[in-house]
Each structure stands twice: as structure tokens, then as C-alpha cells.
Amino acid sequence: GSTSGVVTGVAAGTPTISYILNTGCYATYPITVNTTPAGITGTTSVCTGFTTTLADATPGGTWSSSNTAIGTVGAGTGVVGGIAAGNVTITYTMGTGCFVTTTITVNQTPAAITGTNTVCIGLTTVLSNTLSGGLWSSSNTAQATVGSTTGIVTGVAIGTPNITYAMPTGCLVSVNITVSPAPASITGPTAVCAGSPITLSDATSGGVWSSGNSSIATVNPG
């Protein structure tokens, strides 16, 4: 700026800046213009507990984080680790002091899925998560389905499908569900006299019998 003295770097080099009086007397000052790093590249969001890697085409710089309580970064690697939900500024600085920045959004990863992770064919089990707003999905609906907003899993066929709970941000957790076959139908008389025994049976071996009300009817567990 001819009247302000504000110098703006345009390209790398060592130009001389002059200050000239009306008398023609002047003073000079050498300026070194250093190269600003190229723009930072990489994914600008990460889930808590996970990492994303940033890069810069200009070698030799050092990475730093504006808030390591939200996101950390490896000084020499550009690997950003999500610590807590929020925004953090990641800076790539050259030895000359020239730098570039980018903002990383750290999104909350859902807590671990809770609930029974086994279900019989034709029956249901309910899964849940303390972080609201996500949707449920099954990796194999031929083995188990799940209500997208309810977490109710229905066993369809034998297998170990993966049930996922995902937030709109893409952060997710998952759990394997074991779908087991249900026993065959119980056969035998459906009525009994007080004090008299009857025998029930099931074609599927290995189960244990129990009574819903032992004060009305008992059953031998074996």
C-alpha cells in the first residue's frame, strides 16, 4: 500500500520495499515472502473414539489442535482423534510461521447397545441405546429384522446377523444377534385331573420343562 505500508505476500521471494520522501530521499527494507502451505485435505468430520487423517501437499509442516479436549492431532502425522462432541480448528504450520487451518466437527458416537443379544425364530428381543435420534438396521433381514425406530429384533432364520444403530452424522455402533431355532410344538393331552399325571413331549431334544404356575400344575423339568 503506497500510503499504508501494508505488505501482502504474492509469491515466494525476497523483494525490497522502499519508502520515498518528496525530496527523493528514501529508505529500503528487504522482505522475505514465504510460501503458504497448500490447502488441507481429508474428511472434516470424525466420531468420538475414532480417527480421520488430514494431509497437506506442502511437506515439512507441523499439525496442531486448538482444543485437545475435543480433538487431538498427531504433530507429524495429521491423524485427528475425536475426543468429545464439538468443533476444533486444526492448523498446519511451516517453520516459517506460514499456516493454513481447517475446522473438524467431532460427532458423538452412540453408547454400546444394550439388551439381550439372542432371539428365537419367530420371537422378539428389544435392543436400546442411550443416545436418541438414531436408526436401527439389520445386516441380514433374512435372518433377523429390526424396527428402524424401535430396536425390536425379530428372529427369522438361524444365523448371527449384525444389528446397527446409526446416527444421522454417520457415527454408529453394532452388535451381533444370535438367532436360534425354536422348539417344535408341544404334543400331548391338554387337560389333566387333579392328582393324576399326564405326559407331554417335544420333538426337539435338549430342553427343560417348567410350569407357569406350580400351585396349579407341576412338571418334571427333565
Give the gist of this structure.
The protein is mostly beta strands. The chain is built from no helices and 17 strands.
Largest sheet, in brief, is: 4 strands, mixed
- Spatial ordering of strands, largest sheet: 3-9-8-5
Tell me the β content. 25-35%
- In which range does the helix fraction lie? under 10%
Q: Which parts are unreliable, with pLDDT below 50 for 5 consecutive residues or more?
A: none
Quick check: average pLDDT?
96
Task: Write down the secondary-structure element order.
Answer: EEEEEEEEEEEEEEEEE
Distance between the termini: 97 Å
Q: Report the radius of gyration as a whole number of Å.
A: 34 Å
By DSSP, the count of extended strands is 17
Class of secondary structure makeup: mainly beta
Helix-strand blueprint:
Layout: E1 16-20, E2 26-30, E3 45-47, E4 51-53, E5 62-65, E6 71-73, E7 79-82, E8 86-93, E9 99-107, E10 118-120, E11 124-126, E12 135-138, E13 144-146, E14 152-155, E15 162-166, E16 172-176, E17 178-180
Parallel strand pairs: 3-9, 10-17
Antiparallel strand pairs: 1-2, 4-7, 5-8, 6-7, 8-9, 11-14, 12-15, 13-14, 15-16
